[in-house]
Amino acid sequence: MKKEKIIEIFEMLRRLYPNPKPALDHKDAFTLLIAVILSAQCTDERVNKVTPNLFPKYDSPEKILELGIEKLKEIIHSCGFFNAKAGSIIGMCHGLLENHNGQVPSTLDELIKLPGVGRKTASVVLCQWFKVPTVPVDTHVHRITNRLGLVKTKTPEKTEFAFRKVVPEKYWIDGHLQIIFHGRQTCISRKPKCSECALKDLCEWVEKERY
Questions:
Q1: Could you say which of 25, 44, 59, 138 is catalytic?
Q2: CA 134 to chain centre
């Protein structure tokens, strides 16, 4: 895809979703990190209903460890996969205290060394809290970038690297959020609303469907 068309897509997304804000409620890098861990295979809305029972009192690695894994499981139970998520959060807290004086690091290499923190989780924290240009790729970003024709990839990890190559860096932080919002509202997985999509004239997938 030509650079001019790529820029046109992201300028349109910017007009559709100006100043996008992260959907997960948080107050600092630590609470964001926990919220992202909880959001795996769970809606942001559900996470935002759970964290008000957690963050007001347990908003540091020390306090989470004092809470303990069993009580943590009780609080996060409705997020699903609570055993694995509680284990990841406890391990992550130990890692922060042992290696980072309890502070969330601001580099990808250090974040992904923490137990339970994968590349996507680390990228979300980097771009949404530390404002480091990164490209967190979830199912929406993977699906829509391929539909549009920005990338032609089979996995989210390959989508991230392909995205980095073709999309100007200035669009990375807001752009991934704008794509997510577009995926939730218009470019839905099973029944995309192509006829009302503002990007339909720029989308390769729509073009293929026409012929």
A1: 138
A2: 10
Let me know: does 136 contact 157? Beta carbons within 8 Å: no
Distance of CA 208 to the CA centre of its chain: 29
- The CA–CA distances, whole Å, from 33 to 112, 114, 115, 195 equal 12, 11, 12, 37
Active site residue 138: yes
pTM of the model: 0.91
Radius of gyration (C-alpha) of the chain in whole angstroms: 18
Query: Under 8 Å CB-to-CB from 98, ≥6 apart: which residues?
Result: none
Q: What is the chain's pLDDT, residue by residue, as a tens digit (211 residues)?
A: 899 999 999 999 999 999 999 999 999 999 999 999 999 999 999 999 999 999 999 999 999 999 999 999 999 999 999 999 999 999 999 999 999 999 999 999 999 999 999 999 999 999 999 999 999 999 899 999 999 999 999 999 999 999 999 999 999 999 999 999 999 999 999 989 999 999 999 999 886 665 3
Structure tokens at 38: 């909880």
The Cα 146–Cα 101 span in angstroms is 41
Our CA angle for 18, 29, 10, nearest 5°, is 25
Q: Which of 120, 158, 170, 201 is catalytic?
A: 120
Please say if 73 is a catalytic residue: no
Q: Which of 26, 20, 28 is nearest to 38 (CA)?
A: 26
CB atoms closer than 10 angstroms to residue 95: 19
